[in-house]
Amino acid sequence: xxxxxxxxxxxxxxxxxxxxxxxxxxxxxxxxxxxxxxxxxxxxxxxxxxxxxxxxxxxxxxxxxxxxxxxxxxxxxxxxxxxxxxxxxxxxxxxxxxxxxxxxxxxxxxxxxxxxxxxxxxxxxxxxxxxxxxxxxxxxxxxxxxxxxxxxxxxxxxxxxxxxxxxxxxxxxxxxxxxxxxxxxxxxxxxxxxxxxxxxxxxxxxxxxxxxxxxxxxxxxxxxxxxxxxxxxxxxxxxxxxxxxxxxxxxxxxxxxxxxxxxxxxxxxxxxxxxxx
Length: 277
Ligand code: ADP
Ligand code: MG
Hints:
The chain is an alpha/beta fold. 54% of the residues lie in helices and 10% in strands. It has helices at 14-24, 28-44, 48-75, 96-102, 106-109, 124-137, 147-159, 163-172, 188-201, 219-222, 225-235, 249-265, and strands at residues 113-117, 142-146, 175-181, 206-211, 239-243. A five-stranded parallel sheet has the order 2-3-4-1-5. Helix 9 packs parallel to helix 11 (225-235). The N and C termini lie far apart (84 Å). The mean pLDDT is 90. It binds adenosine-5'-diphosphate (ADP) and magnesium ion.
């Protein structure tokens, strides 16, 4: 309802009512900027439509930014990482053009899957986070979980009789990222519940899986050949595989640091002269 001042009272200053209405309409940027932009518009000789256009544009830009931030929070990334900080030279086995293509997120719209395979420390989680961030920026809903935590959340939900609700919310996200499949073996119930999640997403939503295990070893995670076969069947029907075998980036950078430190120690601290070993 529009609030107006009663007859026998002094009318409220219009700014107060305007602030109230703009808050109610959820136009915070409009409210924050209208005075400043009005002064700028007057100084620049802008007419009213252009003044209002400027305010509407600012509100839209801010709203988009707020929405991306909300999606990032909802995704529950353990860290925010992007491709800008990823060194492709460190992992020659990785198909860079494919990663850049995936970052355009057409695979999310097409409900396709991505599987990143490789030994520990080669940047699988980093790439999964970067693709997740790109999806948030393009307006998709994203959820990030490790396989172990997803399995335990599913089991907990089942015990508390809210499994269907959790399953529905997992099926509803446009991009589900399941990290570290294979690091810990799953219980039979955990494996079956995880299988159901992949099954329910089949051709309905995009999924990224990272794993340190080659496909032939997935049976050891799911404990059953039948389940593993059915899972791989669904997961690999529309799939982009990222081969990420190589030297561990963590080890590489820490040995580079050690080398740098060693070379610093070889300089005489007094004279600055390089000491021969
Ligand atoms: P994985 O998931 O394959 O075990 P991570 O993605 O956790 O590996 O990588 C380990 C650490 O090294 C992370 O901090 C990650 O950001 C960093 N890292 C790995 N590969 C690269 C790379 N090619 N460029 C930049 N940082 C990297
Ligand atoms: Mg990882």
